[in-house]
Amino acid sequence: MSESDAAAGRLVRPFTLTGGRTRPSRACFTLIATVTAVDPPPERAPRPQPEQARILRRCARPVAVAELAALLDLPVSVVVIMLCDLLEAGLITVHPPHPVTDRTLDLDLLQKVRDGLGRL
After folding, report:
1. Are the CB atoms for 58 and 71 separated by under 8 Å?
2. Is the distance from CB of 33 to CB of 64 less than 8 angstroms?
3. What is the DSSP letter of 38?
4. 3-state SS assignment for residue 79
5. How far is it, in rounded angstroms, from Cα 17 to Cα 20?
6. Nearest CA to 76 among 33, 39, 120?
7. Which of 7, 10, 32, 46 sits at 20 to 30 Å (Cα–Cα) from 17?
8. Is 91 exposed, middle or buried (CB count within 10 Å of its CB: 0-12, 13-18, 19+)?
9. pLDDT 10s digit of each residue in the chain, 120 long?
């Protein structure tokens, strides 16, 4: 296989994994949202495709969407589309990132940081 054939194969593969879709059906997946496989899977859930099964294995423990894409060596956009399918099948749960609480800023600490940076 030539180098150009290998590059073309990499471009086709993600397209086939998503069934030609280029946009996710949901907007609940951010890069830092965590995904977890449902255990046990629902009885009526469809059998996952091989790449979806890989995702489910990686999601046995909570994993961030960006980390999952890196582990699978797939574009984030492709992983998100497949995650949408798995969510709609009831095979995963999604947990959005926890919002940062509104804490009173420690002005003394900020002053020390500013002074330290100024000395650099």
Report:
1. yes
2. yes
3. -
4. helix
5. 8
6. 33
7. 32
8. buried
9. 445 444 444 554 666 666 656 666 666 788 999 999 999 888 888 888 888 999 999 999 999 999 999 999 888 888 998 899 999 899 999 998 877 665 666 777 788 888 888 887
